[in-house]
């Protein structure tokens, strides 16, 4: 797990851990990330399944309830299969765009 910070955004990049292990590691260290928007990059997986994305659902729901964005980035996922409850995008630029849009919505009270 590689952790980078870019202003109000924490970027967590998966290296070799399984998705379940990655979620567990993020949850254990959550106090370090709870005040930042989170981007989780799934770059080491050949293909990302719906089940692997769903592993992040509870973490995403909790983070979004605290008025922070949570975005999963993977170009190896079938976006049509992804549930609406979690934000999954294929590129880092789209992740930043989502965070910016959600910040504007929060500022407007939407």
H and E order: EEHHEHHEEH
- Which structural class matches the secondary elements? alpha/beta
Q: Order of strands across the widest beta sheet? A: 1-2-3-4-5
Largest sheet: 5 strands, mixed
Work out the oligomeric state of the chains in this entry.
single chain
Instruction: Give me the CATH superfamily.
Output: STAS domain
Beta strand %: 15-25%
Average residue pLDDT: 90
Total E-strand runs = 5
| Low-pLDDT windows of residues | none
Specify the number of helices: 5
- Classify the helix fraction into a percent range: 40-55%
Instruction: Return the CATH architecture.
Output: 2-Layer Sandwich
Shape summary: globular
CATH C-level class: Alpha Beta
Into how many domains do the coordinates divide?
A: 1
From the alpha-carbon coordinates, what is the Rg to the nearest angstrom?
13 Å
Q: Give the distance, in angstroms, between the N- and C-terminal Cα atoms.
A: 33 Å
CATH domain topology: Transcription Regulator spoIIAA
